[in-house]
Write a structure and sequence with these properties.
The chain has 327 residues and is α/β, with parallel strands linked by helices. The chain has 2 domains: 140 residues, NAD(P)-binding Rossmann-like Domain (Rossmann fold), CATH 3.40.50; 157 residues, Dihydrodipicolinate Reductase, domain 2 (2-Layer Sandwich), CATH 3.30.360.10. Helix content is 33%, strand content 25%. The protein is built from 9 helices and 14 strands. It has an 8-stranded mixed β-sheet, with helices on one face. Strands 3-2-1-4-5-6 form a 6-stranded parallel β-sheet, sandwiched between helices. A hairpin with an 8-residue loop joins strand 12 and strand 13. The protein is globular. The two termini are 38 Å apart.
Amino acid sequence: MTNNIRWGILGTGVIARKFALGLKAAPGAELVAVGSRIEATADQFGAAFAVPHRHASYEALAHDPEVDVIYISTPHSLHKDNTLLCLEAGKAVLCEKPFAINAAETEAMIKLARQKKLFLMEAMWTRFLPAVLKVRQLIAEDAIGEVRMLMADLGFRAEFDPKSRLFNPALGGGALLDVGIYPVSFASMLLGTPVKVTSLAHLGQTGVDEQSAMLLSYAGGQLAVLAAAIRTDIPSEAIIMGTKGRIRVHAPIYCPVRLTLSRPEQGDEIIDAPFEGNGYNYQALEVMNCLRNGWLESATMPLDETLSIMRTMDEIRAPWGLKYPME
């Protein structure tokens, strides 16, 4: 593996463009290839980001010998097939969240990566941002004592469009998979795997969840109170409560830059933790560090945790009767 890591991007949508921009702020990253199902789209993306290899199919990108690792930015419903395609071609993969539609798909993706001894990671970019690293540091330093409760949510009001990826079941639409993954992953990072899951949701006209509330309980009695929405504007922040104090993660929870540390008799301490670039560069740096060291997964976003999160997501939506066409 050379010092510079050569990236390919599979897909050309909004998130792909954000990641391409993020790579500009990641030293050692070279964006050398893009893959689309339409040649003109690949050419347009390539021109916008000065990408030399522009492929008119995902298969061509996967087999490009000049590419070390591929970032998958397609809709949720395609994550499994796209990841398997790239792994079969011998490529390391960073797959956008949610990692897959469900735990069964996740298991298949992880199984192939481990069989082929290839790097694979869920692109939960929030994990690698300075503010979230600071949260973990404060908790490790016992700043708020033992974490006992988490309240976290993420949501916005989108205009209803049955063809949009947010509302289309065939594309893995719904609040839980699109934005609920953030508070669920945040809870996993802090508290681990829940022992009991309770949830309620409102399913809209297309049958996907437009808003949901979740209550997770843990072996030590800890609780996580979570919410997600795509038709309701909610605070989109987190409050971590411990035995000695609490930490407020200011909105938006997916890319925070400010924390408030509150402890009895010590007042509130504002902690600013800005990020460089657009924030997507930090997960890219993690991937490149792993590749240079020959590691097959990230210690910060390990595959077993990704699988645990997807199992929790499955358990959350089971009572709703929400099944996707590919299931």
